[in-house]
Amino acid sequence: MSFQGNSTSPRRDITSELLWTLCHKVRLVTTQQIAAHFYATAPNPCRRATSLCRKLARAGLIEKHCCSLASINVEKPLYSWEPSNGSRPDFDRLDYQNACRWQSAPKPETTIMATNRARALFGGFPRKVRHNELEHDVALTGVYLRLAARAPSVAQTFQLEDSISPQLFSGRRPDAILPGPPLSVIDVIGRGYDAKKLQGIWMAFREFPIYFC
Please, what is the average pLDDT of the chain? Predict the structure, then answer.
């Protein structure tokens, strides 16, 4: 199993932790997610998150983009697959459940991404964000941040798609993995994922536990 980048978080301060997270664990984060995760117990969390992002942007360490995004609840997986399950998932039902949760209206958001200057300081090799996948990637960030809040030691092992060896799954890579043991697959079901696409994900990784988030 081959991974890229430093896998140990500095955990020195919020600034370093945020930049390290952007370089190693997620492709982007919203200011709302920063406020909820990094400033959850602080006064005026949204104001603090906005101020931090403004400072980091001036330093050339992040890029900020304003957009409209719908969000989904990632408190728990939509469906969890275990290889010991006796029957295939009901992909039509999963398709319907996913379509229902993506019906919320988009809201204005500010997304934050690490710059090359930040990666020069913190390492990591995440691919460039694709704007047609912003909602998907924000949801995946939510999965990681939820894991980091509830099970920090497990979150430390979280490996984003960009840093997974292509040889691990015969050339196909999931959104993320938890190396375990047992190795587990994490895949966010994005907007418009139909039963056929969900079945394809299951076929590719069904030998491992899969969290369809």
Answer: 91
From residue 184, alpha-carbon distances to 2, 65, 82, 188 in Å are: 16, 32, 9, 13
Q: What is the pTM of this model?
A: 0.91
Structural domain total, the chain = 1
Q: How far is CA 10 from CA 33, 100, 184, in A?
A: 20, 39, 25
The answer to whether residue 8 scores a pLDDT higher than 80 is: no
Q: Which domain holds residue 29?
A: 14-212
Is residue 6 assigned to a domain? no
Q: What mean pLDDT do residues 113-129 have? A: 87
Cα separation values, 141 from 40, 52, 73, 113, Å: 16, 18, 12, 12
Token pair for 6? 């430093």
Report if residue 7 sits inside a domain: no
Strands 107-114 and 29-30: antiparallel
**Domain contains 8:** no
